[in-house]
Amino acid sequence: MTHPFNASSNNACPGPDGRRGFMKMGLAGFASLSLPGMLRLKAASAAPQTGEKTAVIMVWQPGGCSHIDTYDPKPQAGSEYRGPFSTIPTKVPGMHFTELLPMQAKIAHKFTVLRSMRQGAGGHPAGSMQMLSGDSDTRDKPKPRLPDWMSVTNYLRSLEGPRTVPLPAYVGVNPPTSYNGPAYLGDAYSPFSVTGDPNLPNFVVPNIGLTDQTEVKHLGRRASLRQNLDTLERAFDQAGELQALDEFETQAMTLLTNPKTKDAFDLSKEDDRTRDRYGRNTWGQQLLLARRLVEAGVEVLTSSLRGPLCGRVQNWDDHAVNHHVFDALRFRAQAYDQAVSALIEDIYDRGLDKRVLVVVTGEFGRTPKINYQPSTGAGNASAPAGTKQPGRDHWPRAFSNIWAGGGIETGRFIGGTDKRGEDSIERICSAGDFLSTIYHHLGIDSSKIAIKDFNGRPTPIVDHGKPIPELIG
Description:
Blueprint: H1 18-31, H2 35-39, E1 55-60, H3 79-82, E2 87-89, E3 96-98, H4 102-106, E4 111-117, H5 124-133, H6 149-158, E5 170-173, E6 192-194, H7 213-229, H8 231-234, H9 241-257, H10 259-265, H11 272-278, H12 282-296, E7 300-304, H13 325-349, E8 356-361, E9 365-366, E10 371-374, E11 388-391, E12 394-395, E13 399-405, E14 412-414, E15 416-417, E16 424-426, H14 431-441, E17 450-452, E18 458-460
Parallel strand pairs: 1-7, 1-8, 4-14, 5-6, 5-7
Antiparallel strand pairs: 2-3, 4-13, 8-13, 9-12, 10-11, 15-16, 17-18
């Protein structure tokens, strides 16, 4: 089935930049929202919750995680390949990780490792676009040509009717912000972004779930006034956009005034033991918030593990000029291992494992062969400038990601790489396969759906690949 898209609602126009802009502008700004501003809030609308909608949490490793030093160790390879880490057994017989992941090793029966991912682009922009939108172009571009799977899902589910839960369908908790986006769908389908450090004691999402009834009434009067001023405009509404405006405004008002929205974002509602289990740091609390939001009705949740916990350059891009790759992996391993294992365990413990799929991945792996280059600066996981240190570069020919929940069979690994980890050689999976699998869990047949681009051409949401059978619930 081809879903038409009315491009007239996506013209560039002034207004807040997505949900982040909406959050910043506050009450006065909301009252002055015109049609363009309200259309940008459309990401808050998606499929009705007549039953439990399937959901996805994607944990993104920006820059690319070294597969050899984590999920696909090669202890028999030469010293110029294998790295310094010893291997440890996991809960799954015959599957080993490196010593960096002891917590995940203990719960390996609760997830599946895909060890044979491959995509064709070696740059961060093109590699990210391949994994998130299916763009097979290997050239790096400043912005995406195709919408990412998150925006596509938000758009397709919005066609099914208004939501009956007060939360947006698509939320990013410190989401991926580079090389992805809604492209020709428009900013209306980008995420409701929650930024900052959820571990800080004063962390708060502003203007969510207002409790001051005076403010609520004042906001309602302003919104009513704006509706009255729109009456004349409606006579000239050729595209039917103003009819949709009322729906979007209602959703925005619900987000502001429904107390359940505030509760969903409030980590203080979690007991101390749970917060400790995830880790009292940015990543741990990000993923705890992700679980809370999905449990409350969010259907697409992305969270990017970046920032100071990664090391000096604040991502996983462990070139020798950026980081001492092995020091960087040690530096971030504990927080990463703890947060991801807690999220996976929580999904099962809380009975969400059929409805919610968890995927942890980056855009590619790192070069199996270690290289040495002078550091460009001192900092966490990096020696002083000029010091020669080991690094691993971009490697799209073979890498790993992990999958949990979604009703899939867990406790195994799929595919394999050669003896040095240089190439996927068994059960090779492409970016199209990756995306088709996610769409399948969300109830979207990616082989049959196209959306019109800026030029009105129906464009497939994935033009290659099929769902990976072993990862279908």
